[in-house]
Design goal:
The protein is an alpha/beta fold. The protein is built from 16 helices and 27 strands. It has an eight-stranded mixed β-sheet, with helices on both faces. The chain has an eight-stranded mixed β-sheet with strand order 12-11-14-15-13-16-17-18, with helices on both faces. Strands 19, 24, 25 and 26 form a four-stranded antiparallel β-sheet that branches. The longest helix has 27 residues, at 461-487. It is elongated.
Length: 675
């Protein structure tokens, strides 16, 4: 059954928290962890063999990888007299079996047979070496120690593995950071390595470390022949020799490029030191592309040689000039128009026997000499052309003199800030005069430069730097847009009075340092998001809150008129007479529309006669006016944005209203309706 193994991170001071089997003494264990921490990058390998601490019983599980017996057998691993041989053995493949109680070396260059176990563990993001160490500790009572390329030492103890899978764990040990006068913000990290095909590789673990570095950024590379003290000087410059371990062996210690970053209080920024592999180590490959890469990456190049300023140093400077020549856009471009900006050159003679005879002008004297030798004069001319800013420092054989190291330290701490433009061709590409690098931009510069160099074609620094600028601007645009989207999301309620206000979002992008193309893209991106929000907001504003139904009576066409007949007039007159008779106290009987008087006394008769007279006097023509009606209704819609939409009046089906009728005089009838 497979289980994911837990990894606990601890410091060296916390090693006593690791439970050890009875066969392992803490002092031996602690010393072996120290070896794994210190002896890195032996023979160009950033890891090391597996150190297994157990008793002699585990010898039966060892399978030798070589028939040649090692001189280390039965020696004690804690004996410093065997440091050189131990370093060599640690750099080999396989493992080393050590008696956990005494420290005696029982076997070297061996593989450990895997014993069957009830539980199999998965160790994420680790390779074959770590899984082999894990298998050993799972199957036997022992401690297995191995190292990762990122500088961590991983400890596998059987006491923490041969238990419940839930409680099982291993430990990643990081060396305690030494506190010198500078704060280390990135411990030694492998920036460039070479794969089996000889291609440059940008290790993944360097990515996050570089991105965290703050601007402004100085990038200083130590270059030169192998075994001349480049790593030692780099360590002394930052006042911590452990950051760049050195070894008294012939083989190259640095493979590719290692880097350390410190806070530089002199610029309130970051100093990134690169320790590169040697030019011409007889025991290692010579790769000029490393120097070419440094030319693309650095604001200062520290070229180190040993003993004296002679032909060897001039040859090394000529190599650097040749690497610089590769980066020139054309042969016609002068040095002050090179792209990128030429790094400052610092020539250092380490272990100098003539320290008291050299001064700051020694290099210029050597470069200005004319010996009549065209080849040598050509080399000097190339150095002057490609490195217009030059410094010289000599370090005596005894580096105990703080002044000489202090001089070099001062020069490095005052190195130029890495910029993308200023006096080079990129000044035409950016609107601002100066573009300071931060860690993320340097990461992009490094990764793109590695791709260009691995491609084997003509390197175009202008394209590399422009792509870095575009990537930087793209990150700013993304940050600004992400903030704008968070402040003005598409989702959410209706927003009354919505207006385009991008100023706060633009504070996440430095428009003064962006290209015109990028500024245009920033504005377009922000506007496009706002337009989308505005469209959605309009849709939300059109949403209905409620609907009311109104009803109203309307006249159905114009009124109709009908002339009243004579009989109708008589009836009307008779009615008037009846009213008169009633007023006189007579009985009135209506029959067939006629009013008849009964028991008519004189007074009553007189009223009747008056009514009849009035009837005869009412001879004006009259009309009956009829008006028809209909009932209509409409919907009134109230929207989210406050708009009120009144619908069309429509007849109410199946509802019929009674018309109204009245008698009017002829004078009240429109002429066209009179008969």
């Amino acid at each position: 059954m497979m289980h994911l193994l837990r990894i606990d991170k601890i410091r060296t001071s916390q090693l006593r928290g690791v439970s050890l089997p009875p066969s392992v003494h803490f002092s031996v264990f602690e010393h072996c962890v120290g070896i794994a921490q210190l002896w890195s990058h032996c023979e160009g390998k950033p890891t090391g063999c597996i150190l297994v601490l157990a008793d002699a019983e585990l010898l039966s599980d060892c399978r030798p990888l070589s028939l040649i017996e090692s001189s280390l057998l039965h020696k004690n691993i804690q004996d410093d007299k065997h440091e050189s041989s131990l370093r060599e053995a640690f750099a080999r493949d396989g493992g080393m079996l050590i008696d956990g109680q005494s420290g005696e070396i029982l076997a070297t260059k061996v593989r450990f047979n895997r014993r069957p176990t009830e539980v199999d563990f998965i160790l994420e993001d680790h390779g074959t070496r770590h899984h082999e160490a894990l298998d050993v500790a799972c199957g036997a009572r022992c401690v297995a120690i191995t190292r990762s390329e990122d500088g961590y030492v991983t400890v596998f103890s059987s006491e923490h593995l041969q238990c419940s899978p839930v409680d099982a764990r291993c430990f990643r040990v990081r060396d305690e950071q030494r506190h010198g006068q500078f704060k280390v913000v990135m411990e030694r990290t492998s920036l460039v390595r070479f794969d089996a095909d000889g291609k440059m590789d940008f290790p993944r673990q360097a990515s996050d470390a570089l991105r965290s570095l703050e601007a402004p950024l100085q990038v200083v590379a130590f270059v030169g022949p192998g075994r001349t003290g480049k790593s030692t000087l780099a360590g002394k410059v930052v006042d911590d020799s452990s950051l760049f371990p050195a070894a008294k062996v012939l083989d190259a210690v640095t493979n590719g490029i290692d880097a350390v970053a410190i806070q530089n209080p002199r610029i309130d920024g970051t100093l990134l030191l690169l320790d590169s592999e040697g030019f011409d180590n007889a025991f290692a490959k010579s790769r000029p592309e490393v120097a070419t890469l440094c030319m693309l990456l650095c604001s200062q190049i520290v070229c180190v040689d040993y003993d004296r300023l002679g032909d060897n140093m001039m040859a090394n400077l000529a190599r650097l000039s040749a690497c610089r020549e590769v980066l020139m856009p054309s042969a016609a471009v002068s040095a002050d128009k090179l792209d990128p900006q030429p790094p400052e050159l610092v020539v250092v003679v380490n272990g100098c026997r003539f320290h008291d005879k050299y001064d700051s002008g020694t290099l210029e004297k050597a470069l200005s000499s004319d010996e009549g030798n065209a080849e040598r004069n050509g080399c000097r001319e190339a150095v002057r052309k490609h490195f217009p800013c030059r410094r010289f420092v000599s370090v005596p054989v005894s580096t105990a003199a703080d002044f000489e190291i202090g001089t070099l330290r001062d020069i490095v701490l005052q190195a130029p800030i890495l910029v993308t433009a200023g006096i080079g061709l990129l000044a035409e590409y950016v609107s601002a005069y100066r573009q300071d690098f931060d860690g993320t931009m340097f990461h992009d510069l490094l990764s793109r430069s590695v791709v260009e160099i691995n491609g084997g074609g003509c390197i175009q620094p202008r394209n590399v730097y422009q792509s870095v600028l575009r990537d930087r601007d793209a990150r700013w645009i993304e940050l600004a847009l992400r903030f704008f989207e968070s402040q003005l999301p598409i989702e959410g309620p209706y927003r009354p009075g919505l207006k385009y206000k991008p100023d706060e979002a633009k504070q996440h992008a430095d428009e003064s340092r962006m290209t015109e193309e990028s500024v245009k893209r920033l504005n377009e991106s922000l506007r496009a998001h706002y337009d989308k929000v505005e469209r959605e907001n309009e849709k939300k504003g059109q949403a209905t809150i409620k609907q009311d139904l109104e009803q109203k009576t309307f006249e159905l066409g114009p009124p109709t008129y009908q002339k009243v007949s004579k009989q109708d007039n008589m009836i009307a007159g008779g009615a008037m007479g009846a009213l008169g008779a009633t007023g006189a106290g007579c009985a009135v009987v209506f029959t067939g529309g006629l009013a008849l008087l009964a028991l008519v006394p004189a007074a009553g008769f007189t009223g009747a006669i008056a009514g009849a007279t009035a009837a005869r006097a009412n001879t004006q023509t009259q009309y009956t006016r009829t008006q028809r009606y209909e009932l209509k209704q409409r919907t009134v819609t109230h929207k989210t944005n406050g708009e009120v939409v009144e619908g069309k009046w429509l007849p109410v089906p199946s509802v019929h209203l009674q018309p109204s009728c009245e008698v009017v005089d002829e004078r009240d009838v429109p002429p066209q309706f009179r008969e």
